[in-house]
Design goal:
Blueprint lengths: L11 H27 L4 H4 L7 E3 L1 E5 L3 E9 L2 E5 L4 E6 L6 E2 L4 E5 L2 H36 L5 H33 L2 E3 L4 E6 L6 E2 L4 E6 L4 E8 H4 L12 E3 L12 E8 L5 E7 L12 E6 L7 E6 L3 E4 L2 E7 L5 E5 L1 E6 L2 E6 L6 E3 L2 H7 L1
Antiparallel strand pairs: 1-23, 2-17, 3-12, 3-16, 4-11, 5-7, 5-10, 6-9, 7-8, 9-11, 12-15, 13-16, 14-15, 17-22, 18-19, 19-20, 21-22
């Protein structure tokens, strides 16, 4: 016996659920398509960035000193130039060498000058021989005149010849001395103990009078030259001591350097309206070389203003860029270049780039991943 199963009719609620599934899927696809066509942001894009730890830019008290950018200079910086013309035949030093006073730096071809000096010495010998002959003749003429054998005119002529040969011998002697001195110009020596900073010639180059051959400086005598605005220089405390000033030279062995002497230049730069302040550094300061950046801190009357500070860990240093990540109005970090001042504990002074009340990100690496 076979039984035939009849299909069970769908209940009304089941039929409605089956018919609703494709309708619901189509509605979702339609909404996504309309959103993509309209270019509207998705829910993922509308999500705010994850919160980052920030700190406000705070104001500090009025500064007792003000910093001004400067540069390290050598008090004795010499450009050794040629005094004579000739080819460079010997070069005994290179850049970076320490030299002592009188040490030979280079030699110029002096063969022509040596021949001139030899010729001058021979002329001196000839002039001396003529002077001796004129002297003996003058002595004989005086003896003959005393016995009335010759006239006064003959004696005067002999005396004139004697004086002429004497003057000629002196002239030849001076000329020979000048030739010897000239030959000494072909050997260039160090004027003092120092360091060769640059060599401007190579073997075979033609040296000409006035052409710089090399430069050297004395590392024991350095100074910092800072450009101070005219308005600031007028507010300097009158009669202030040198100990009230100090200099920071990044890279030097000493962090805070007290100058041994200060000097204000008497003229104002017409282009920048600044005065040059020179601060002599102590002798034997290690780690400082000419050309290095320095900052001079000066006590200025009435010039101190409230300073801005941020945590030191918020500062980003990439090659020559110094910056911080500032939190924008939308909560996203923005990289902004800043100019740093002195450090104070865990904080560092901001000279430019930020304003009071702004917030900086404390984790620059996390802020860089969100940009």
């Amino acid at each position: 016996m076979h039984f035939k199963m009849k299909p069970t009719p769908l209940l009304p609620e089941n039929r409605m659920a089956r018919d609703a599934r494709p309708s619901l899927l189509g509605a979702v696809l339609l909404a996504v398509a309309l959103g993509a066509r309209a270019g509207g942001p998705t829910a993922l894009q509308d999500a705010p960035p994850p919160p980052l730890a920030t700190a406000p830019v705070t104001r500090g008290g009025a500064a007792e000193t003000s910093g001004f950018d400067g540069v390290v200079q050598a008090v004795r910086h010499t450009a050794v130039a040629a005094q004579v013309a000739g080819a460079v035949i010997s070069l005994d030093v290179k850049a970076g060498d320490m030299v002592r006073p009188g040490q030979v730096l280079l030699r110029i071809d002096a063969r022509a000058a040596e021949q001139t000096a030899v010729a001058g010495a021979a002329q001196v010998q000839a002039a001396r021989a003529a002077q001796e002959a004129a002297t003996r003749d003058f002595q004989r003429q005086k003896q003959l005149f005393s016995k009335n054998y010759i006239s006064q005119a003959a004696l005067d002529s002999a005396e004139a010849q004697y004086k002429a040969t004497q003057a000629q011998a002196a002239a030849q002697l001076a000329s020979a001395g000048a030739a010897r001195t000239q030959s000494g110009f072909y050997v260039v020596t160090a004027p003092y103990k120092g360091v060769v900073s640059e060599v401007a010639v190579v073997l075979g180059d033609l040296a000409m009078p006035g052409r710089v051959l090399l430069t050297l400086y004395d590392p024991a005598a350095l100074r910092v030259s800072a450009a101070v605005p005219q308005a600031v220089a007028a507010r300097m405390v009158p009669g202030q001591a040198v100990q009230a000033m100090h200099v920071d030279v990044p890279g030097a062995a000493t962090a805070r350097i007290t100058p041994v002497k200060t000097q204000w230049m008497p003229t104002v730069d017409p282009a920048t309206h600044t005065l040059e302040l020179r601060l002599d550094l102590p002798a034997g300061l290690s780690g400082a070389t000419p050309g290095m950046f320095a900052r001079a801190w000066l006590p200025v009357a009435g010039y101190g203003e409230a300073r801005l500070y941020v945590p030191a860990r918020a500062v980003v240093r990439r090659a020559e860029l110094t910056a911080v990540y500032v939190q924008g109005s939308d909560g996203r970090p923005l990289l902004r270049q800043v100019r740093l001042g002195r450090g104070q504990g865990d904080e560092v002074e901001m000279l430019a780039g930020v304003s009071a009340g702004e917030r900086v990100v404390l984790d620059p690496q996390a802020a860089a991943r969100l940009r």
